[in-house]
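Readers of this paper often ask what the protein records in our data store actually look like. Nothing more is needed to write down the fold, since each code stands for a local backbone conformation. Below, we set out a record of this kind in full and without editing:
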Amino acid sequence: MDRSSIIFCIGSVLFCLGIAIITFPAASVSRETLAAAATPIDAENMQDIDLGDFGKVSVLEMLDYYLENPPAKTTVESELKETRFQGC
């Protein structure tokens, strides 16, 4: 490799590393948020969930509805759609 190629590669790596260092704080969460996310909460203590047109529903009501009306099991196996690459 010639000198300009090496300078370009090193410059590109340093530029990408600089962007990563600058944007990392915006992408990370605080330790308190991480600890709160790892701690389980009882369904009674959770806030109501807004379902748009259906209104606000408590987590316990959603759980009861799911237990009374479980999702239907499908008996038909879905066929995998075969795609072929045909080029230009």
